[in-house]
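Fold it.
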Amino acid sequence: MSVRTLLLIVLGLPALLLGGAKIVGTDIPVPQWGRDYVLRFAFPVETPALELPEVQGTSDTSRPLVVIDAGHGGRDPGKVQTRADGSEVYEKDLVLALSLELRDVLLENGGIRVALTREDDRIIPLAYRPEIARRLGADLFVSIHIDSAGERSEVSGATVYTLSNEASSEAAARFAERENAADSLNGISVETDNSAVSDILVELSQERTQEDALEFADLILREGEGKIDFHPFAKRSAALAVLRAPDVPGVLFESGFVTNQRDLARLMTEDGRREYAEVLESAIRVYLARRADTATSPGS
C-alpha cells in the first residue's frame, strides 16, 4: 500500500463518516482534545492560620521576652542524616529538643519570659516565625537550626547568622537560598509584601535592630568560647527570611553539623544539649542586662 493510499484512508474515511452522518441527521460526538481526556483534581492550598504561642514564665509583663524558634517541623524534616545502624536523624527533632532545653534553662533561672514558635512536630511557615516575635513584642528572637556538609563529614562547629541584604560568603548565600525555599518545597503559600521586605533589608543596616543582633551574635561567640565548638568562620550574615522582623533583634544559631559524628553525638544527648543551652542562656542574659542598663541610664 502506497503512502498516498494510506493518507486517503486515514484522512478521508473519518470525513466520509461525518458527512454521511450529517446527511442522515445523526450527530457523532467529537472529543475536545486536551479537555475530555484530562482528569483534574482540586487540592486545597495549605495556608495555616497564624496562632500566637503561650508566653511562659513570670506573669510580670515588664520582664523581657525571648522567642525561641525551632526550625523546620511537620513534613519539613530539614537535614536528614542516616546513622551507621540505618536509622535516620532529622534536623527538626534535634532543634526542637535543643529549643526545649534552652526554654527550660531560661525558666529555671527566672526573670525572663519565653515563648516557642513550636513545641511539637508541626510545620510553621517561615513568614509566621518572625511575625510571632513581633506580635508578642519580643525583645529577642533566636532561631535554632543544624547544618549539613554533605560528604564532608570533617566539617564541624556552630555558626551564628544575622540578617544582611548581602551574604557574608558564597556558602552563606547558598544556605539562605536553601532555608528560604522551605515553604515552596513543602506546598505552603503565604502572601507577603515583598517590596516592603526589600525596603526593610536595605534600611536595616542603619537601624538599631541590626546593631543589636550583631552584638548578640558576638556575645554567643564570647560566652561559648572554650565551652562548645565553633566553625572557623562562625559569624555569618545572609538574607534569611526567618530573621526579617524589622523591630526584633534576631539570630539564627546553627548548632553544628548533622553530618559530623561529634556534633551529632553532642546534640543527641541531654548533657550535650544542656551545654549549648547554657551558652545561649548566658549570652541572652548578658544582652538583656545591657539593654536594661541602656534604658535606665541618664540621657537614654
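Residues 33-43 have pLDDT under 50 and may be disordered.
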